[in-house]
Each structure stands twice: as structure tokens, then as C-alpha cells.
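Review this:
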Amino acid sequence: MHGGTGPWTQAPRRRRSDARRSIDAILNAARVVLGERPAASMEDIAATAGVTRQTVYAHFPSRDALVAALVEAAAAEFAALLDDAGLDTAPPADALAQFLGAGWRFLDRYPMLLNATAARIPRPDNDPHDFAPPRLERLIRRGQHTGDVDPSLPADWLAAVIFGLQHTAVAQVATGRLTAHEAEALCLESTLRLCGGEARRPNPA
């Protein structure tokens, strides 16, 4: 038998590559369509993805399965955003701004998480509610060590309050009381005051 990459090995690779492209197109279409119309059908998503309904069902046997896959992809994306945010190296005030900004960029990309049906969205295996709080706590402890964050309050308490602010802001956006831009600015201002007062500001971008 001969090694290498003959036609017998190239065809399966091509099929896998085509399948991956279809899956990515479907997930991206679901992200956009469900953000605009939470009750959109599989047919709506297929049309936006440029594939047939049968192709969608070949990869995702039900709408619930598609939503679950989308939520898993979203969680992985948010984890990558935090990885790239410099939370362990940037000055603490900058890192706090980066942490909050990553959350709002994530919600801007996945607006389905802001609508009234978000409570029915399944929890992903790699849930941001599990991995994000410890990262924020670690950042706060670093800021307390450097004197940039008030050390008189426990780091886990500060982290919990900051997440509470975020959740409140998200709810305000979902009900139309604030724009996402207004909510992001209020969250940052409130967080900086909570953690260290007005004197400690992130460096301008």
C-alpha cells in the first residue's frame, strides 16, 4: 500500500472541510437571525445560511440542538475574548475595563442573549458563569496587591457585586431602558468607583 495523500484520502478531507463550512455558516446565521427574531424557524436560519433545510437538519437534528450548539460556540468565544484581554498583565484599571468591554462585545455579537427569551437558553458545558468569576476575582486581588483596588472589601464580594451590576445593566438593555453603549459606560463608571474611587482611571485607548 502506498502512503501519502491520494484521491482516497483527499475526498474524506474535502467532505469534512465542506461539512465544517456548512456548520459554521449555519451557526453564524443562527446567531444573526435569532438575535433579530428569537422565534425564527429552522427554515429562516437555512435561508440566511444559504443552505437547504435538509442540510441544517443533517447537522442539527432539532432547533433545540442548534441553539445548544450556538450557545457552546458563544461560550468558547467569550473565553477566548477573556484570554486576549490581558487580565493578568495590564494595569488593573485597564484590565477591569477590558473585562467589562469583553462582556459587552460578546453581547453585541450575540444579541439573542439580551432578549426576553434568554432565560430559556440552555447552559453550555463551559459556562461563563463558572469560568468568568474566578478570573475577575484574580484580577481584583492583583489590584488590591498593587494598591489600585480598595483592599478593605473581600475580592469575592467585589466580583459578585460587579457581576450583579452587569446583570442589572443587561436587564435594562433588554427592556429598552438603556442602550448597550449607555449600560457599558455606567457599568465601567460604577465598577471603578466601587473598586478604587474616581482617581484610578483606565488609560485612554
Remarks:
- The helical segments are 7-36, 42-49, 53-59, 63-83, 92-109, 128-146, 155-174, 180-196.
- Residues 66 and 151 are 45 Å apart (CA to CA).
- The mean pLDDT is 87.
- The domain at 1-61 is CATH 1.10.10 (Arc Repressor Mutant, subunit A).
